[in-house]
Structures are given as C-alpha cells and as structure tokens.
Fold these 2 entries.
Entry 1:
Amino acid sequence: MASFKCPDVVNNPGGWGPCTLPEQFKDIPYQPFSKADRLGRAADFTNSAYMGRRDRYASQFGAGGDIFAYYEENDESSFQLVDTSKAPKTFRKKTWQNRNLQRIRRDERRMGGTMQMLSRGGVRDRDRQRQERKLQKRWAGRRRWTDRTPVKVRDPSVEVQSSWKPMEELETGKFSKLSAKVDKPEDLLLCGSVQYYDKTWDRINTKSEKPLHPVDRTHHNVTTTDDPHIRKYSQSIKGANVFATDTILSQLMASSRSVYSWDIVVHRVQDKLFFDKRDDNDADLLTVNETAQELPQEEGDHYNSPERLSLEATYLNQMFGQRCLKKQTKDLPEPNPFSASSEEEEGQAASVAYRYRKWNLGDGLTLVCRCTHDAVLQDAKHKDKFINVKTLNEWNPKSGVDWRQKLDVQRGAVLATELKNNGCKLAKWTLESILAGSAALKLGYVTRNAPNDPQHHVVLGVQQFKPTEIAKQINLNLENAWGVLQHFVKMLMKMPEGKYVILKDPMKPLVRIYSVPRGTFEDDDDEDDDSEEDDEDDDDEEEDDEGAEAAPAAVTEAAAGRTVTSL
C-alpha cells in the first residue's frame, strides 16, 4: 500500500516565504538573472558578427554572469609566455586603399590578358593605347589631398605705414544687417557730350562675331576733390556735407562682395566729408574672376596674371563702350568740365555725360555725387534715354562655360557663371547705373581670338537689362547698400577732423579705418626739385654777366609752362 508523507511546513510568523535554506540548495552558488536575458549562447556560431559591439547575450547584471565559469585549481597565474614575433598586419583601417589597389591590379591583369590575346602588329599597339587612355580617364578626375592648390597671399592695395593710427575694424559679413531708406534724388546739373548707341550691335551673335578695333579716345577719371563743380557745390549748397563720385560710392556699397584689397581716402574738413582716391590708385581698374572659387594663379608678367587681366578688362570696357556708338552726338547744356580747351583735343574726349545729384540720407546728412552716363538710346517713341554700356570679357574658355558654344543657346547659363565669378564687378556696375538714373544697362560679351592672344578680341553678343531687374538677379538689396554707406558716413562723422584711409584687408573679410597724417599721398618732390633748379639758375645768372638780361625771360617762360602743364 502506497504511503504518503506530509512535507514539512515552516511557519514564518514575521512574513512570508521559507525561514531557512532547504537542504538540497545548500552550498550551491546563486547567480542573478533577468527574464530578458537571451539563451542559446553555447550553440550560437554567429556571435562573431557582433565584434566590436555590445554582446547580444550579455546579462543585464554585468559581471555577475561569470559565477558558473570553470577555473582550474592548479592555475599558474604567475606564468607568462613571451612572444617576440611581429604581429600580423591588419588592413582593416585602410580598406579604401586596398580596394583601390585591387581595382588597379584587376585592370592591369585585364589589360595584360587582353594584350596576350591580341595578335602582333598595329592592332596590339592600338588596343594597348586605348586601354591606357581608358585608365587615364578613369583616374584623371580623382585628386589626392596632396594636389590641393596652395593659397596665394595677396598684397594690400596700399602699404600701411607705422605713422598710421587704426581707428575702426569692421567685418563685412555683418553688413547684411544694415538697412536705410533714401528718398528720390534731386538733379543739380547735366553736362558733357554723349553719342547715340548703334542698335546694330544688338543683332551680333556667335556666328556673326565682330572684331573689336581700338578707338582713340581720352577717358577722364577725375577724383572728388579735383572736380570744380563739387568744389562749387560744397560752398553753395546749404546743408551738403558728404561729397563723392559714383565709382567710390559703389565700392563702399558693394564692399561686402569684394575679395581683393582696395582703399579710399576720406577728408574730414569741419563738418564735411570728401571721399577721395589716390592718384596711383587701382580703383578705376576692373577686376576679373574676383568672386570665383579659384582665382587666377598666374604671377608676374604672364598675360593671365590678375594684374594683366585687370588691365585687359579695363581696356576692353573702354574700347567697346566707344566702338558701339554712332557718330551722332548729343550736346548737353554744360560742356565737359574735364576736357581740354582746344577744339582739336575736345574731339578726342570719350562719350560721357555727367549728372550731379543730391540725396538726403537722413540725420542731417546730405550727399552730393557725380554720376556717369555712357551713351544715349532712342526708344520706340524716339525719346532719348541715357544708358550705361559695360563689357564682360572671356579670357579662358576652359575655366567655365565656353561662350562660342553656349552664348546663343544658353545665355542664361553664361550670365549665371559671370554672376558667380564677377559678382562684385556686376554689383558695382548696377549701383552706378541706379545712382545715375540710367534707363538701361547694356553688357557686351567680348572674348579673345585665341586663349593665348590677349591683344585681339571679338564681340560675340550684347544683352540689355534694366538696372532694377539685374539688381534682383544678383540679390542686390538697395536698402542694404544705402545702409552700408550711411554706416560709414556716420562713423566718420564722429571722428575728429583729419585725413583717413578706408582699407579692405586682402585676405580677410575686414575693412579697417586708419587715421593718417595730412601730408600722406602728397608728393612734394617735384616742387623741391623745381625750386633747386631755380636756385641753381639764379647762381649761374649772377656769375655770367653776358646772359643776365636773357635769363629772367627764360625762367618766366619755364614757370608759365609748368603752370599750364599742371592745369
């Protein structure tokens, strides 16, 4: 008969559960575990795929999972085996180099196998050359980190002297936050003699390109303080306290887009500011590819160096602006204030109209500026409208879009490339046209006959824009441009009277203002030399009695000649 033994029941008066450890579980270690731990590690052969990452079978209790690990009793923990052999190289970190090597060797084997299958003679050489060209094309576009073009150190437009005192330092990147609203200007004077634009140049295309021949004309780039009308307005117009030219104003307004160095001289006389330029300044020279990703890297007298390209662009801009005009001339109420007095030399002056205008900048600031028109255009109603004519030149077809192939079919792509490479130059041209109130801005596309021939050029086409429309295309905000100018004017008005230089850093987007001595950029050497020559002549006159009567007349004629030359 089966027997039943009642198990021992432990009474726990202080809680629940057993009071003592059962006999069958004595001396057995306990390992904490979690229900989320995965089982199957002993038979899992794919755990090596998780190398370098968290073990998929790791316990949530950390090192507590080693409680059942096997340990040998006679473990010689102090014994170490020294292995002097080199560890095998692992190429895990340079897999991309191994892949490139494997690709090169595979191509070489493929090319070698192909060469073995070819018969002897010209066929084998021709196919070998074809395979070499194929490999060269594959690796031609890939550049190594050692092939980077070194950064060219650019020189400042003027050397900073030790006597110059730094006053302010401005970051051009912060100019985008400036803004100012300016009312319409008031016209003061219109003078000069300007010719009519020839509309036949608008029908030129790449298939009917026209050579650009030089024109013998005199261009007057007179600065602010040498302008007789500005001198008159500084005394006659009440409240006028800021004076400049359109070239200087456009440089200041577009200063945030400039890359090359430039400088402007400022004269603070009482409560008036005169924005001026140096005699040997390059402000009138046009830049080439100033805002491009890769600037021209040639140096010295090379025809593609930045200096030579600047001279070439300025020359083409002047020649095309005079070549595209008719012989018909429109005379304005006042003559050109900078042309010579003789009629023979007046005929050689370039076609130009000067418009003097006045703006109210607010806060008691009144601007008087001399603006420029290049030509006159008759519209459909036979009304005369003043326009500006500028030139874009191509110097290297391989550096961007080839104009001879794309200008007629993709003119927008050509213009977009020029906006990217010459954004600062186009912004200044647009600002000059808006300041002058020109009805249109015509851009001529001029290229070289050959890439290595900077002497002969042809015209491939002409395109016309409204200044306000092209300003939108190049993201030129007029309120921001006026705000930048107003910021410079207010800053200089707070400084004491004297002479200042605004200098753009050649390598950084910074504009610095220096206080310079009053005699800076003024050459008195010629006057000293003339006085020394006059003293020597006087000594010779005293020693020579026979030429005593003729010498005073010669000195008077020489002095008169110098006076006429200086005027």
Note: Confidence is low (pLDDT under 50) at residues 341-346, 524-567.
Entry 2:
Amino acid sequence: MCIRDSINAEYGGAQAASMADRSSFIADPNGIELTAAPLGPAPVGCTSQLSTWMKLEQRQATAGVEMRAGLISFLTMSYVMVVNPSVMSPETCQGKPACLPRDDVVVATALSSAIGTLIAALGGNLPFVLAPGIGLSTYYASGLVLNGMDKEVALATVAISGLLVIFLSLTKVAGLIMKWMPDTIKVSTVVGMGLLIAFVGLRSVNIVVSDPVNLVMMGDLTEPKVILTVVGLALLTVLIHFDVKGGILLTIVAITLISWISGVSDWPSQIVKMPVVDSIPASVLKDGFTHLDKDAVVAVLAFTLVSLLDMAGVMYGLGKMSDLVDQDTQQVMGGIYGFVGSGIGSVLAGLVGSTPVIIGIESAAGIAEGGRTGLTALVVSGLFALSMFFSPLLSAIPHEATAPVLVMIGAMMSKNAQDIPWSKMRKAIPAFLVITIMPFTNSIPNGLAAGILAYGFLWLMTHPRRIWYMVRYGRFSDESQVASVYNSLATATDANLATYHEDRYHVDPGEEAESERGDLRKWSDSGVVDDASEPDPNHTVETMAAYFVPDTMLDSNPEQSFNSRTSFNM
C-alpha cells in the first residue's frame, strides 16, 4: 500500500491532484548541502513512513523513480547469474569433482547478491548493487581449482576473505590500506583483471586455443559458436554505443535463442526449480577449513586485497554520481555498510558455492536513472532472490552468449590504463608488470605481488636521500614537518626571501627570487605529493626545498633540516 500510494502521488493520482507542488531547500543530516529542487506532492499515510525510512525527500527521490532505477540496475547486473556459473564451471571441467554444478552456482550467486545488496540497502541506505566479481571468479577457476586446489578449500578462502573484509572495514584498517596503496597499482590491477577476463572469454569459445610451441594460438574461426560470439560482440557494442538500457542482457538473450534454435547448444530441460544448496556448506566446513595451506593463504590475501581495491574506487565513483559523498570527509555516507555487505555476502558465497561479493559498477545504470536511496537496492535484492527459482534456465545459457560480455567487460576495465603515468618509468614499470603478469600467468596475486615489489624497490632506488635518512635515524621522515616548512616559506615576506636568496647565491635577488617564490608557493599548495609539482631538476644541484630553507632556520634540528630537503613523492 505504501509503494502504491507513493507511485500514485508521483504520477498524479487522486491524492496527488489535491495537493500543490512544494519546493524547498533541503539539507542532508550529515551536513551536505543540496540544491533547491521541487519536492513534488507531500507524502500521505504510509507513504510518509517509506519516505522517512529511506530519506526520499532529503535525497530528492520518489518511490516510483527508485523502483524503476532498481529494475534497470537489475537488468544491467543480472548477467552475472549467467556469466558467473560459466566462469566458475567451464566446459573443460564439467562432470569432474573439481567443478561445482552450475545450478548450484546460480543459486549461490543469486543468494549472496541478494543478501549483500540487502545489507547495503537497509544499513547504509545505498543505491548500490552487490554481486560476485567476474574477475575474482576467473581467479577462483583458473588460478585455484583448475591448478589443483580442492573446490572446498577454494570456497573456504572465499569465506575467510569475507571475514577479513568485515574486520578490516570495522577497524578502519581497510581505509589505511587504500590510503597507502599507490594509485598506479590500483589502476593497473583493474586493467590486468580486464585482460584476464577477456582472455577467459575468448578461450571459453575456442577463439584462443592452446599451442605446444607458442602456448596459445588462434582457433578455428569457422566454428558456429565462434561466429555467434563475434555476432554477439558486435551487437553488444552497438547497443552500448546507443546507450540501450539492459544491452548486456538483451545480447545474452538474443545469442542464446539463436544458439538454441540453430542447434549449436541444447535447449534447457527444465525452467523452474526449487532452489537447493545441497551439501556444499557441509563439505566446505568439513573439508575446506580443515585443509588450508600456504596456497590458501595466498588466495585469501588475493581475494581480500582485490576486493578492497575494487570496492574503494567503485564506491567513491558511484557515491559522487549519486551525491552521497560528504564534502568535508570525502567519504561516502553509509559506505561502511557497502564493505560490510560485501564481507557478509562473501562469507555466504563461500559457504554455498560462489566467489567474493563486491560492489558492481553496473549500479551506475540505476543511479543514472535517478536512484538515490536504498529503495533502489531493495528492488534489486528482491529480484535476485526471485531469480534463484530459475537456476536450470540460467545454467543452460551457452558460452557463446556470455563470451561477448566477458570481452566487453575486459575492454571497459582496460580504459583505466589512460590514468597510468606512462612517461614516468618509476611508476609505469610496476603498472606494466601488473597488467602483463596477471593474464600471462592466469593469476591475480602474481600480478599484484610483482607490481607492489617493483614499486617499492624502484621508489627506494629513486629516493636515495630517504634511504640515508632511514639508515641514520631508523625511521621514515615526517611529512607533516615538511608541509609546515613549505607553508611557512610560501607565506614568508619578500624581504626575508630576497635577503636569504642574496646571502646564499650572492646574486641580485630581484625578479628571480620573486619568480622562485611563486614556484615554491605552488609546490607547497600541491601538498608536495604529485609528480606534476616537482621542481625542474636542472634548476639547482639539490631540490628547490633545500635551497629555500635557511640553515639558520633548520640546522638546529637535524631531522627537520633533512625533511626540508626531501621530496615526498609517493
């Protein structure tokens, strides 16, 4: 009744007609000021309860728009229930003990998505959709199970990673990891995963096949499923080009019907089935957690780190898009529940047969439609729960229908490569290692390890002053002291700066000192952390900071003196 009344009010029902439109200036309770906008008809009856609970008025939303946004988000994201089973249980291992039955994966995917999204909706009032990540599913299958790890142990690592995500989020350690992880590694991880996902898609339909000499080679392009894959990729590209809502789902449906009708793949023998989890939870608890080894530790760390890296970036982007980022803290309001929902969903996924749950970038489709509250996510959660009853139908979707989606996802993720500073080799080389090693070794942790180690080594080798300081004082220097010094110099009087410049260089200060003072101010304002703000290395023998800090000002404190001469470029 509440939802019906809200829809009637939005679209001019009897109750709405008797009320005048109102307009007011709304302020978010967390302090974010929103722009003045028409609020529409005043809510009545139980509609008021819904509006208050979901903060519809405060976020300038209506129930009708929220439900429509939820439907669009689900249609955009629903492909995961089709693609995830095909990735976790590829044809190469069907019927083998190492693989999970696809029906079970469909149920596990839908259930974990429904619960994770529900927590984000009710706890954080977030319009975000949570579902298993295809990149993580690729790692589960290709990097773990097909490389010899028992599926029970692999699923146990998924559940443990979920517990770690919850712990790290509640203790705010996750925030520290995100803060100190170099942006280059974050960006290159997304690109590397994209290439790995695309490779899995091409391999699933034999466009890429193994070769004893060159490792891989082009397959037979005249095979019917290869032709259907190419047609599907072309169709999907055109639909995305014209911004067709649900283009991914439409492509999957079209290619599936063509494949079934043409006889390339078999029709499903059953459409509806009561969802059953079978014996997976018991086997994970009995044979998974009791057989963890060092390989499992690596898998847990990989699942956890990649999940955090992925969600941190996606959540912030979606938060900005939906106006949920606090202007003071630059944090997404209620964002903690996004991480908690991911963690709980991942624990459940590991127990019932799926992979870690993360925030889907596909949530942007619903947000673009006007979704601003948890009501959007509630609709998605309910639709995920309903889809569990159609596991036989969804598990019968052929690979030629899902491969185009995997290739498109890889292409979308690869566009992040433009954010890598390729002209700066100290950052480009670690990024390149991440991007290449992930798909070449079929392993996400291998790529991450190579990139992080290379970044740390190259950073130390290109910062010899920092090494000297560590040897002498036994710790890293304090950047806060440097910022204070730079700020003081930026506000120094022209007379003081000119006098120091003349004393040190024995030249006429004049315009030269004023020019350098301007450069220093810009360097200070930038926070001394961006490569773009580094001074010209040809300007002086040392850094600009060393020349602008008088010895009489800092030499009484050797640590502060050294800090002032150190460039803090992470």
Note: The two ends are 56 Å apart (CA to CA).
